Amino acid sequence: MTVHDSDTNTIRAAGCVLWRRSVIDDGLEICLVHRPKYDDWSHPKGKLKRGEDPLTGALREVREETGHACAPGATLPTVRYLANGRPKKVDYWAAEATSGRFTPNNEVDRIVWLPPTAARNRLTQPRDRKLLDALPAALHTTRRNRSVT
Prior knowledge:
By secondary structure, the protein is of the alpha+beta class. The protein is 27% helix and 41% strand.
């Protein structure tokens, strides 16, 4: 089934691959969220509010689900799939965690910060792994753009 953006039946959502540098070895750590409703591990994401810009929605969802503010970077691949029989389109960005503290809530009861390989193994949905595949190039692009400005 092909999903078109003009399809009014499409659920629109956005999220981020939230990352930080480890204080121990300066390696990359990826934040994954656990949603008890689905008993799954994923990147922070959620449905857009009516008229909400996808990037604004992604940053809001990161804050709501992880308690962290973040600095968005390069775009990552869009993920499309069926959710309860309806097409869903999720736009993603790479985003560096800048501040914050997690507090468990009804939607997300736990978060973990893991190295990329461990994060890949923890992700419940295989479709979320392609976001990790795209992250190194996205971080390189973000660094290059910051050094030019």
